[in-house]
Amino acid sequence: MDDDLDRLLGAPLVLPPSGFTATVMDRIANAPTPVRASRMTTMLQWVALFGIGVPAAAELALFVLSVWTTSSAG
User: Fold this and answer.
1) Which pLDDT tens digit goes with each residue over 11-51?
2) DSSP secondary-structure letter at 74?
3) What is the distance in angstroms between the CA of the first residue and the CA of the last residue of the chain?
4) CA angle (23, 25, 26) in 5-degree steps
5) CA 31/CA 29 separation, integer angstroms
6) Nearest-5° Cα angle at 61, 59 to 50
7) Contacts of 4 (CB under 8 A, 6+ apart)
8) Structural domain of 58
9) Does the CA dihedral 19-20-25-31 come out positive or negative?
10) pTM
11) Which helix (H) or strand (E) holds 26?
12) Other beta carbons less than 10 A from residue 70's beta carbon
């Protein structure tokens, strides 16, 4: 079993094809730029975040309060 492992460790590493870096960099340069979100979309995202964040924070606070109440009652 060690012979198989030694053979695999001694094998040459896989080399990328020639021009691989140039091809990747060319594709990155020619990639479309992302479309910027409109002001309305950004505002709606903040409203949604606030609309979910406040109830979630309240739920977390109630959970902590209930754990504190339960532990101090006994």
Assistant:
1) 888 888 899 999 999 999 999 988 888 999 999 999 999 99
2) -
3) 61
4) 65
5) 6
6) 60
7) none
8) 2-73
9) positive
10) 0.46
11) helix 20-29
12) 9
Q: Which residue has the tokens 């606070």?
A: 61
Residue 11, amino acid: A
Distance, CA of 57 to CA of 70 (rounded, Å): 20
The type of residue at 61 is A
Greater model confidence, 1 or 70:
70
Taking the C-alpha atoms of residue 46 and residue 54, their distance in angstroms, rounded to an integer, is 12
Determine the Cα angle at 59 with ends 57 and 60, to 5°. Answer: 65
What's at 16, amino acid-wise? P
Burial class (CB in 10 A: 0-12, 13-18, 19+), 65: exposed
Two tokens at 13?
């590493």
Domain count within the chain: 1
Q: What is the CA radius of gyration of the chain?
A: 28
Amino acid at 3: D
